[in-house]
Amino acid sequence: MEETHGYNLTLCLLKLSDEDFMEFKDSLRKVLGFKPKPIPRTKIATASRRGLAMLLNKHYPGQVWDIVLSLSQRAKWKKLFDRAERLKRDERRPYKETMEIIFKYIWDFENYIHVPSHEYNIITEMQHRTLKDIFDLQLESVTAVILGNKGEGKTTFLRKAMLDWAAGDLWQNRFHYVFFFSLMSLNNITELSLAQLILSKLSESSETLEDIVSDPRRILFILEGFDYLKFDLGLQTNLCNDWRKKAPTQIVLSSLLQKVMLQESSLLLELGNLSVPKIYPLLQKPREITIGGYTEASVKYYCCSFMHSFKKGSEIFNYLQAIQLLLTLCKNPYKRWMVCRTLKCQFKRGEKLNIAFKPDSVLYTSFMVSSFRAKYAGYPSRQNRNKLMTLCTLAVEGMWKSVFVFKYEDLLRNGISESEQILWMKMYFLNTRGDCFVFYHPALQLYFAALFYFLRQDKDKHHPIIGSLPQLLREIYAHGQNQWLLTGKFVFGIATEKIAAILEPHFGFIPCEKMRQEIFKCFRSLSQGECGEKLISPQSLFDSLVENQEEQFITQVMDMFEEMTVDISSADVLSVATTCLLKSQSLKKLHLHIQQRVFSEIYNPEDGDLEVFKHEKKLGKCDISSEACGVIATSLTKCKVKHLSLVENPLKNKGVMLVCEILKHPSCVLETLMLSYCCFTFIACGHLYEALLHNKYLSLLDLSSNFLEDTGVNILCEALKDPRCNLRELWLSGCYLTSDCCKAISAVLSCNQNLKTLKLGSNNIQDTGIKQLCEALRNPGCKLQCLGLDMCEFTTDSCADLALALTTCKTLTVLSLDWMTLGHNGLELLCEALNHKGCTLKVLG
């Protein structure tokens, strides 16, 4: 847990110039040398201002101010002495004042935003106003979520909100206490209490825990970093309502999110794309705020601010503006920072502005190489490789251990010396967080984790924590380790000749071809289901393939799969999936699950044909109207679709008519048509009648849960009695049928040699209808194999007819009587029939 120790001292040390701070540390080493168990000299020498404050609090609790005051007597440090005296007298300051000190420091020194506070407020004015309004309710418990893509500044927005509250500019009449927790720092803590979490923020404050929780309505918890939290919070049982009780970390967090613990408090959560599906369903009536990209004017202001020069900043902005894709990319705050950092290095070297930025792997590599060259230009590639390998090892070890906040000892263990720590920070690869270290952005850690697999060599010592590349790929693509998906994307991206050309001049040979072969081997195994492992999320694979961008590579991977099930949740997801699926030459069966409204939002029937996918279309719950059916129907003949599901779409009679017109076309080879819950009536059955007579391929027709009534089924039965009809399965569950249509159905069963399955469940067939159906089953011409009669409103009186049919019909193997109350006598009759030597039934449900 991140504690507040040291921020007051940090504030004092910030008043010193760099030269005075170095002199202060030199004097401190001499004083501490006489104390038992002194802090190692190298730790003091390499410590940042806040890091030094943390070291002193850790090693000399309760003595820090006396040590500082003993050094502050020198005249040149008089301001430090005065401030230290004042802070010592008032060390137990109010919580809000402490938070203002802390988050002012974080804003100034731990953000990559590099935009003045007042300018940031202008940029995020709309979101800031929404944030204020959401919590303006009269002391009601509110849950709000901050949404946005990775790197768009969600955490920065929350840090600024925390600073504004502490400074008295936000929620003044609403919250007395606001607690900010970065969840990635909890990954190594298996057990805690909410009381402990709160106390970790109160170490330098005057309030007591009891004062704070006395009115939970006045408390707001800000939580960020769910994408990097290793715990599963989707727990519904064993939740805890006692904020004092120690429990597993996931129990405490889940209880807080689901308002079991301190239910009157409010929540403000940062959710990334990975955490939204896991966390959002747990929340009670969440309110949303979306963080989007910056405007062009904001990007220009940023460039000038970053370069500390209007002229140089304008030159960089003009370069960005000339490349529209690059300018669009720079509306993402973190990527904009990387671009400007890379271009600034080129400025210093006197080079022409030029940056490769697409895809992300290229941008990260360009940034990394440019920053690395600023310190290690001219060094042998082997030496550079060894240096960078220590950082990559730290990153990948942390990834496998779900660690994103590193201790000083973690760096030393991975071969990163004190001097290298300073260099990595100057390159903006590492940053401090208290007396710990983090990568400058979590995404940067995952990039270095991927790079590890390209830099390591066979002679390198095996690391017991770090898995092999095949293990990594299986964890991501077969076991659903979505937290590592960005690492997988970077692996695909780095395995290209384009990135090898950027890396090799500085780090030596990059084995791209070897890595590609390992990727092929892994996905060949997943496509064949070896060792019980299969690709569970094609969309994750598609995202990674697009990151690679080499057409031959994409085709080779896609051709390993003959069948895929793809979930389409947005237009962007559909676009990525289309790019990859159209590269496939081997795909035979495709299942598409498209979320409601996605289809209607992205597709206008007047714009042209539906994108072609081979063999199968599943378009259930896509809000497809009757107008769109014409285009879908046309695609049935063009791409030889064999299976089409349009369930739960408002096709109505007109839509079914359009589909039937194509079913009659000689080129239509459709075998399965699913039309349940499509809002059509018996009028559509006239069109279905003609289609059944003309189409020789259709074998399964699902018309369940539509308003066909007896009239519609009578029309269909006329088609089924025609020898030209080849239908093998007909599903009519929930079609508002009565016993009146059973005579026509019985006539079909007695003469149709093709029909093998008939589902009549959830209809008002009653005993009269069952009697007629059983007479047909006893007819020697009946070849029916499966009959569904679940929830058909008949009584025990029908059991005698059913029993006789079971002992007579030689083809019936499956009979469904689910949800029927038949009584003891009825069941006895059925059991006797089942034991009869003439009964061929195998399944009774």
Name the features.
Death Domain, Fas, 39 helices, 845 residues, Rossmann fold, alpha/beta, 9-stranded parallel beta sheet, 5-stranded parallel beta sheet
Walk me through this protein's architecture:
This protein has 39 helices and 20 strands. By secondary structure, the chain is an alpha/beta fold. A 9-stranded parallel beta sheet has the order 12-13-14-15-16-17-18-19-20, with no helix packed on it. A 5-stranded parallel beta sheet has the order 2-4-6-1-7, with helices on one face.
Q: Unreliable runs, pLDDT <50, ≥5 residues?
A: 1-5, 600-614
Instruction: Give the strand order of the largest sheet, numbering strands 1, 2, ... along the chain.
Output: 12-13-14-15-16-17-18-19-20
The portion of residues forming beta strands comes to 5-15%
* CATH architecture label of the domain at 92-292: 3-Layer(aba) Sandwich
Principal-axes shape call: elongated
Helicity level:
40-55%
Strand segment count: 20
CATH topology-level name of the domain at 92-292: Rossmann fold
Provide mean pLDDT, rounded: 83
* End-to-end C-alpha gap: 56 Å
Classified by CATH, the class of the domain at 92-292 is Alpha Beta
Give me the number of helical elements. Answer: 39
